[in-house]
């Protein structure tokens, strides 16, 4: 089982990249939104991989984090969602957006991915909502990474942190502020505050 491949980018195409390693080229399916597509030819990268073996095909699917791999593996357990369909979801949405869509039962967002119809999206929500964990935990992790996700100006207090986290999920600042102000977050931790806002709906 190939867990990762480290090497130089030799080819980039719409649905994947070729990594050159020890005189061999490995084609790896990667999300269209991944940072691998923004790398230059010859750049050295490390791609975490999932190897899917079938009778007539062996394919590698690549990601940037173990969390993405875990979500990918959960997606392909859903009846009707194969590896390529799961990769299509990752190409249409970020890791956090996928988890948020499942957690919030946002079927319409999932159907933005090529090959994912309404019925399949509903299956994904039903099968995975209780398995992916609380999305508010991921949002708390976002807040803990100011250099990657938010500027230090949003670190003034918990309320501002919640607004910033919701913006990272794609909501406008006004939508986030209105949603946060509807909730009494006094004495709540950041994670509890985010969870309460998401439960109330935006």
Describe it.
42% of the residues lie in helices and 20% in strands. The protein has helices at 66-75, 83-92, 95-103, 107-110, 118-128, 135-143, 158-168, 173-181, 190-200; strands spanning 4-13, 16-21, 24-29, 44-54, 57-63. The model is unreliable at 142-156 (pLDDT under 50). It has 202 residues and is an alpha+beta fold. It starts with a strand and ends with a helix. Strands 3-2-1-4-5 form a five-stranded antiparallel sheet, covered by helices on one side.
Characteristics:
single chain, 202 residues, alpha+beta, OB fold (Dihydrolipoamide Acetyltransferase, E2P), DNA polymerase, domain 1, Helicase, Ruva Protein, domain 3, 3 domains, 5-stranded antiparallel β-sheet, 9 helices, 5 strands, 20% strand, globular
Please give the structural blueprint.
Elements: E1 4-13, E2 16-21, E3 24-29, E4 44-54, E5 57-63, H1 66-75, H2 83-92, H3 95-103, H4 107-110, H5 118-128, H6 135-143, H7 158-168, H8 173-181, H9 190-200
Antiparallel strand pairs: 1-2, 1-4, 2-3, 4-5
Helix pairs in contact: 6-7, 6-9, 7-8
């Amino acid at each position: 089982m190939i867990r990762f491949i480290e090497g130089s980018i030799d080819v980039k195409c719409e649905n994947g990249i070729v990594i050159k390693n020890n005189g061999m080229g490995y084609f790896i399916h990667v999300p269209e939104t991944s940072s691998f597509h923004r790398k230059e030819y010859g750049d050295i990268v490390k791609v975490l991989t999932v190897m899917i073996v079938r009778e007539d095909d062996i394919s590698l699917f690549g990601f940037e984090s173990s969390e993405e791999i875990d979500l990918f593996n959960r997606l392909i357990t859903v009846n009707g969602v194969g590896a390529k369909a799961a990769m299509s979801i990752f190409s249409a949405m970020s890791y956090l957006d996928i988890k948020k869509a499942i957690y919030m039962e946002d079927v319409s967002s999932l159907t933005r991915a090529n090959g994912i119809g309404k019925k399949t999206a509903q299956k994904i929500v039903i099968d995975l909502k209780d398995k992916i964990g609380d999305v508010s935990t991921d949002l708390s992790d976002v807040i803990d990474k100011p250099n990657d996700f938010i500027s230090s100006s949003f670190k003034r207090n918990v309320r501002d942190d919640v607004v910033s986290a919701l913006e990272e999920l794609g909501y406008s600042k006004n939508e986030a502020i209105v949603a946060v102000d509807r909730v009494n977050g006094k004495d709540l931790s950041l994670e509890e505050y985010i969870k309460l806002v998401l439960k109330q709906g935006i």
